[in-house]
Design brief:
- The structure is a single chain.
- The chain is 54% helix and 5% strand.
- It is mainly α.
- A hairpin with a 5-residue loop joins β4 and β5.
- The longest helix has 22 residues.
- The chain is globular and about 60 Å long.
- It comes from Aphis craccivora.
Amino acid sequence: MLKLCRNTLGDWKTIYDRNDKAILWKYFEELVSYQDRIGLHSGTKIRSRHISCHKEKMKVRLAAQTFSMSVANALTFCSTTLNLKQFNNSETTITFCKTINNIFDFLNTRNFLSKSEYQKPLKSSDEGKIKLFIKDSIQYIQSLKCESNNKEKILLVKSQRKTGFLGFIICLQSVHNILDDIIKPPGTLDFLLTYKLSQDHLEMFFSAIRARGGFNNNPTAAQFESSYKRLLVHTELMVSSGANCLPLDLTTILTVNSTNKTKTEDTITNIYIDMLCAEDNSLLENDLINDINIVDTVYITNVVEYISGFIVRKVQRIMVCDTCLLL
């Protein structure tokens, strides 16, 4: 569904909200172009492959990273803080990006301890908020419009590219019914993680079956049985990094007991200490400055501060050297 929504906006370039304000694909293209020109990325994973995704349309990861909260925040930053002309009037696109991201997160909750508003498990105590979010999301999707062949605006859910948007509506309504039938009544489930209802697990299983067949991605019954037995007996199910779906939690599929050799905590800590305390004179300050294309000082300053803060927080968790912490 997410891929179909991304493909619709990417192919048509423009859709409209309930107020006939344009949701434009060009803002995503401008963001990638601006990041590449500056040489620094504003806390996003969107790259040129996300824009030119014709050969990777089946990769869910690319679609999720395109319609993500980080991309919406980057567009907001470029529009409001930097006041870049190419991002003028992008508020409608930002709202669309945030809405799709929130719906996707809501339909893929997998962390019981999450405090995020849209990534928490479904509980009866949150019934009011959940139903309000479902209602608002369905109304938003139903109000989206596109241009017909006659240049007239019609509802997107009645167009030829309606499948992905109708899929979101059906999933949201299904979660609403699950809340009423399984979670709300006493003596039933205390909570539910919606990622457990995802078809990603089946998709990853099929990916592993196809991988066993080499170039043959359409196995016969005998070949499928053979691949299934090998997966069941010899190894746990592992998914290729190039598969259409990637595992997002620790749900086991055809797993057997196995252990991975990991480095001890002391070894890892010593490696980080050696890296941080080692003196390196190969890079001079002037070389670093020359490598950065200083086009927008405000943008570069904010990005560097964000990266520095992230590194400091990560290092402080594992740092045991008092001298380094004082620095």
